[in-house]
Design brief:
Rossmann fold, Alpha-Beta Plaits, 2 domains, 14 strands
Length: about 325
Amino acid sequence: MTKNIVEVDNLVKSYNGIPAVNGVNFAIRQGEIFGLLGPNGAGKTTIISMLTCLLMPTSGKVSIAGHDVANQAKTVKGSIGLVPQDLAVYPQLSARDNLLFFGRIYGLKGQQLRQRVNDLLQMAGLNERANDLVNNFSGGMKRRVNIAAGLLHQPQVLFLDEPTVGVDPQSRNFIFDNIERLNQQGMTILYTTHYMEEAERLCHRVAIIDRGQIIALDTPKALIDSLGGSIIRLGLPETTKQTFIAQLKKLPAVKNISRQDNALLVQTHHSQEALVQIIQLLNTAKTTITTLEILEPNLESVFLHLTGRRLRD
């Protein structure tokens, strides 16, 4: 049985008594790509900061590779790599000089350091631009240097905090391929994003976070399957009568209904059947709608169903 390499127990971080992260529990198995998903401000980066020894928790416990983050921070730092959301490279240095600098910080030197830098420049697809200033790179190329810097010391666990923000599609696919290759070589990866298609491609399991709490945790397939059919989002006037909503709930193809501002989120057993029944009911009840949107099952529609908000809010 695969052991847990990261264990998080009742993690809390508060600011002036207000929790930004509120009682989070999860474990990451060795060799797993584990996703933390949620909208901006949900608490993803705060959790990453606590797991990587950058921020002390208000309460709770974190262990990585068997070491307590609070009491054995130096040992933990040697076993993890962090690629932050904000670029952590020097723009006035070349890609090679950036990696040489960070490599020396990790204690690498001599031929070992030079070989490691060469290997990572190759991995990042930057051999031909290795001696160019990072300031002249595209956003995607800067991200690739950022990732390479986090890999210099061959960490057991790599933390990637929204590594594809602001990158072009070619660089994004290049980053995906490298993440999958690193994982195939045995590296454990914690991946935060609010791009759900990335998580569906990369992650073995995902935790969906909202307002500092985990509201769902499972494989992407299991979370999507739990939703069942599609969601139909109906924008309705404020004057819509409760009798119409009550009739809507009774339709055979409708599974559940929840509110979102002036809209109804209609969870269906089968979207096409439900759509026909809803339109018939609208005509019969002479009720107008302002918007109509069919959301096919995916991680974003799971989140919308759980919280009533879009993941990118």
